[in-house]
Amino acid sequence: MATRRQFLKNTGIAALGAAGAACSADSGNNSESRNDNSAAATPSGDSAKLLVKRPEHPPAATADRLPLEWHQRQVGVLQNKLEERGLDGILISDRWNLIYFTGLWHSTTERPFSCFIPTDDLAVHWFHPGLDYELVRSWWFTDGDYYYDYPPSEDGYPDQGRVSISAPVDLIEWQLKGIARRGYGGGRIGLSQSPTVGAMARMREVLPDATFEDVSDVCVQMRRVKTPEEIALSQRAYDYFSQIHAWTRDYILKHGTDLTDFKIRTAATEYGTDLIMRDIKRDGHPHSAVGIRIRIGCRTGIGTAYPHPNQFHHNKVKRGDSLQVSGGVKLSGCGGELYCPYQVGDWPAEWEKVWEVMARGSEMQIEMSKVGTPCQEIARAVHEYQLEEGMQDYLYQRVAHGEGWEGHQEPYISLGDTTPLEKNMTFSMEPGLFNPEKGFGYNPSDNVVVGDESGWVQGSVPNLTKEWAHLKI
């Protein structure tokens, strides 16, 4: 029977790693054309004219993903930090650090998936399940070991013609012995995430001559400060997202109370997906069109009164509702949230005051997001302002969370976070206010980038202005 290696050789998949790194936005001809008869092609209006191109915005990236060379450069930075700690390498066993440092986009299940990167060599040694065999071997691959599937037997590899049953293999032991075979069994090994007490005991038992050190702080400190390449790719995602919001606003204005929030969500998602994917170079093979997330949400009426509602949203839009269009858009993990809180039709004075305080709190967060400011100082200033304006009963959440490839990322704009801001950290923008008793709420978001003198946002949607937010239908 043909081996996997022969399969890769015969199909040419092994060459895709280099090709995938060069994807650009200039070749939408590879994607299917948009269906202009779909709901996503319906409305046109003036909302796009209200979009604001901010002077702080960098040129948007033209590549669809960060190239392999970028990931290898970040590994070089990581290796320097490991060397400073006297470590011989790092075992990366969590999804987001693995993707960030190697560039290998993959799914996380119950199947353990990890790699070992030595301090003294630009190399990656993989330990992975068999169903990801082609993904691993066609990307950045030095060498690797795989198990057929979880839980594995000692010699059960049907793909190699061997069907054998046994007690399940101890995959902690399997990975560590793989590291030992590569000459690091007695070394100082960094860990990308803190293991459980039981896992650490087992690791010390398997490699008694090795020492292990949690270096998750090193990893996250690198990931929370965005590089210029990440900022540029994120800007591209936000340029798309702003267009999606303009289209969605027009869609609501055109169809008004004939819509449900579910209909808005699904139509906006279809429009946004068509908009973005027509620009993405892809041929169906791995390593192109990776890390793409197009998730648009909508809720109207009572559902907006809760920061994290748990009900399914399928409600008719009504005059007098507060309405929120939310979600996240990412390209190769770069991008984030952009929320628009609206008022449909009549705007009671009390509700309008809540909206105004929400908007001013958001502006305060942007203004204070400069290098050196402790996170908690921004949170304190915004919350004190909210209290001064009588919003105590409407407060349910911190001001913002850090924005990373995984979504929520530390640090947090919260009263208990002492972290000083660094340039190009990124945060959501969420000084939201919620009134469950009267059934309304307003919660914005955008990507706030930390600057030298103040922060700036990557969205072009003027979601903190009444001109944008008041839907007169």
Structure characterization notes:
This protein has 473 residues and is α+β, with helices and mostly antiparallel strands. It folds into two domains: 86-214, Creatine Amidinohydrolase, Chain A, domain 1 (3-Layer(aba) Sandwich); 225-471, Creatinase/methionine aminopeptidase superfamily (Creatine Amidinohydrolase, Alpha-Beta Complex). It has 13 helices and 18 strands. α9 (228-255) packs across α10 and α11 runs antiparallel to α12. The protein starts with a helix and ends with a strand. Mean pLDDT is 92; it is low at 1-41.
Tags for this model:
34% helix, Creatine Amidinohydrolase, single chain, six-stranded mixed sheet, elongated, five-stranded mixed sheet, Creatine Amidinohydrolase, Chain A, domain 1, 473 residues, alpha+beta, 2 domains
Report the CATH topology name of the largest domain: Creatine Amidinohydrolase
Radius of gyration: 25 Å
CATH architecture of the largest domain: Alpha-Beta Complex
Mean pLDDT: 92
Number of domains: 2
Strand content: 15-25%
Low-confidence stretches: 1-41
